[in-house]
Amino acid sequence: MYRSKIAGVGHYVPKNVYTNDDLSRFMETSDAWIQERTGIRERRFADRLEETTTTMGVEAAKVAMERAGITAQEVDFIIFATLSPDYYFPGCGVLLQREMQMREIGALDIRNQCSGFVYALSIADQFVKTGMYKNILVVGSEKHSFAMDFETRSRNVSVIFGDGAGAVVLQRTDKEGQGILSTHLHSDGADAEELAMYYPGAHANKWLKDKPGYPDQELGGLFITKEQIEQGATLPYMDGPAVFKKAVVKFPEVIREALEANGMTAEDIDLLVPHQANLRISQYVQQLLSLPDEKVFNNIQKYGNTTAASVPIALSEAWESGRVKEGDLICLAAFGSGFAWGSALIRW
Ligand code: UT7
Q1: What is the whole-number distance in angstroms between the Cα of residue 240 and the centre of ligand 1?
Q2: Which terminus has fewer CB within 10 Å in the chain: N or C?
Q3: What angle do CA 145, 97, 57 make, to 5 degrees?
């Protein structure tokens, strides 16, 4: 069995900064409320026309590949995690492949929202371990801003999320004890609707059928009225407190699972890089695991929650600032819509 290591990590964030005060121009909110409940001070929003989930993913990928010392021709497989794809289909993986002029390699899109990157990394790890591929490009990228509503009715969602991309090159290594030690994936669909975007989707007919104007027909029926759009039928829904309560249980659980699987304890962790959902969630997890501040990386203050991009952006920034060094034990963990969650333990 081969082993896999992260040979290069990179990220890209758009240059447009929106502070909490900037958002107060569009909706009833305040810097004090947002900072107190989430820790977020500002976030980046992509250019409305020029930047997409794919283009940001490409920029992050270029950095990761340069740091890994590989060219686009050497990538054997692409895994792209996002909940905000450029098109409903096809996925962003093939768009990135086209943009980067890669060979006719396979491209897989992952739809696991906040835990998408950890899921993608785990899949890549399996492909490398079996010897099927040597270099896999794993990307997490999101352009949330295009689908968010900046009116007061959506303020619990729209103050949290931001745009950006992160990427890693997962590469085969022969070095014993180095690389990904293990990954752990979980889900529980019981509360799938608590953090979801229902439309467009095959289930949306059921949701819309009693609404005025719904066509009485035997087949088809991708249907929505202007009024329903105005009422928010196409907007993401989130029961924030329900997500929060589940997250603070599942984050520590899946981190401990990874540690136990490797005969380690929280004390062995050199750096925990959690999905940046809410600074309060990260701080709670930190407290439960008795980790000192220098062992937990947070950058939600600058970028908000970038969903599938948050873990690789944070990992990339941590690496750039010298907080990820050779031999360090790095723990990645994520939780989000689905609910789906996971962790990865890495000897750098
Ligand atoms: O990555 C995984 C995805 N998501 C998460 O992890 C999110 C987890 N949940 C959270 O982070 C928190 O639940 C939120 C930050 C989303 C909300 O914080 P909360 O402390 O749970 O607030 P809440 O939803 O219980 O709302 C409390 C009050 C409400 O007003 P009333 O009903 O008490 O008068 C909301 O209308 O705060 C109000 N509110 C706001 N006020 C100002 C909600 N959003 C805002 C806002 N600005 N942006």
Answers
A1: 6
A2: N
A3: 30
Measured by CA distance, the residue closest to atom 7 of ligand 1 is 240
Q: How confident is residue 221, by pLDDT bands cut at 50, 70 and 90?
A: low
Q: 167 forms bridges with which residues in the sheet?
A: 10, 139
In terms of DSSP bridges, do strands 17-19 and 42-44 run parallel, antiparallel, or are they unpaired? antiparallel
User: Which residue, judged by its Cα, is nearest atom 1 of ligand 1?
Assistant: 277
Which of 220, 165, 115, 178 shows the shortest CA–CA distance to 330? Answer: 178
Phi/psi of residue 232, nearest 5 degrees: 100, 15
Q: For position 200, what pLDDT does the model report?
A: 81
SS3 per-residue string spanning 56-67: HHHHHHHHHHHH
244 close to ligand 1 (CB < 6 Angstrom): yes
| Distance separating alpha carbons of residues 259 and 301, to the nearest angstrom | 28
Cα 169 from Cα 160, distance rounded (Å): 28
Q: Which two tokens stand for residue 110?
A: 């992952």
Is the per-residue pLDDT at 209 higher than 80? no
Average pLDDT over residues 15-42: 97
- pLDDT of 288 > 80? The answer is yes
Cis amide linkage into residue 215, ω under 30° from 0: no
- Cα angle for residues 313, 185, 147 (degrees, 5° grid): 50
Distance CA 19, CA 2 (A): 46
Asked if 222 and 216 touch (Cβ cutoff 8 Å), the reply is no
Coil, strand or helix: which one is 223? coil
CA–centroid distance, residue 293 to ligand 1 (Å): 25
Domains and CATH numbers, the chain: 3-173 (3.40.47.10), 179-191+238-347 (3.40.47.10), 198-230 (no CATH)
Maximum CA extent, the chain: 64
Helices (H), 130-164: 155-158
Q: How far, in Å, CA of 286 to CA of 344, rounded?
A: 17
Does the model's pTM come out above 0.85?
Answer: yes
User: Per-residue pLDDT tens for 86-113?
Assistant: 999 999 999 999 999 999 999 999 999 9
| Arithmetic mean of pLDDT, 36-55 | 97
In the 8-state DSSP scheme, what is residue 305? Answer: B
